[in-house]
Amino acid sequence: MVETDNLKNEALLLLGCPQVPVQTSLALYTAHNLRRQGCRPVIAGTPAARKLMEVADPGRCYIDEMNDLDNMIDEIAEKQRDFKLCFVFIHNDSGVAYAGTMAYISSARVCALIFGEHAEELAGEIEFPCEIIAAKAVHNPMPLKRRLDEVMQWPVVSKL
């Protein structure tokens, strides 16, 4: 069993299907800010989401560990691993289901990053404890980036 008081200073970024363009840039931005805070980002995603992250960060400046989404969920469910913080990137119903699963099986503080055309409707579907960060962002990541910065209150590198 994982001792929650002794968790490593790691945050999980859970990435589903990268159908909406802003997911990759927001995941890299989140990983960057986590690293600046002294927290090690760990990516778990679908094969396509992981490939996009690998191509976007070839030198592994922001991420150094990537895992299969389902394998990571299994490890957490079996109490082999856990995190202090978990960001679930959501643009459809399956993303809401992944966030609900994480809220149930993990001791992490779960942050639901909801984006896409139907962000507000998806946010309304959440009935489990988590931090909801939502904005209608499809191609332009700035609305969700601003909301994320407000909630996380990490130092802003530049004002865009």
Features:
single chain, 160 residues, alpha/beta, Rossmann fold, six-stranded parallel beta sheet, 19% strand, globular, DUF1890 domain-containing protein, UCP006600, MTH777-like_sf
Describe this protein's structure.
By secondary structure, the protein is α/β, with parallel strands linked by helices. The chain contains 6 helices and 6 strands. It has a single domain (7-152), classed as Rossmann fold, CATH 3.40.50.10160. It has helices spanning 22-36, 47-56, 69-77, 93-105, 119-124, 142-152, and strands at 10-15, 40-45, 66-68, 85-90, 109-114, 131-134. A 6-stranded parallel β-sheet has the order 3-2-1-4-5-6, with helices on both faces. Strand 2, helix 2 (47-56) and strand 3 (66-68) form a beta-alpha-beta unit. Helix 1 (22-36) packs across helix 2 (47-56). InterPro entries: MTH777-like_sf, UCP006600. It comes from Methanoculleus receptaculi. It holds the Pfam family DUF1890.
Structural class: alpha/beta
Arrangement of strands in the largest sheet = 3-2-1-4-5-6
What's the overall geometry? Answer: globular
Order of helices and strands, N to C?
Answer: EHEHEHEHEHEH
In the CATH hierarchy, the architecture is 3-Layer(aba) Sandwich
Report the oligomer.
single chain
Number of domains: 1
Taking Cα atoms only, what radius of gyration do you get, to the nearest Å?
14 Å
InterPro entries: MTH777-like_sf, UCP006600
Pfam families: DUF1890
Protein name: DUF1890 domain-containing protein
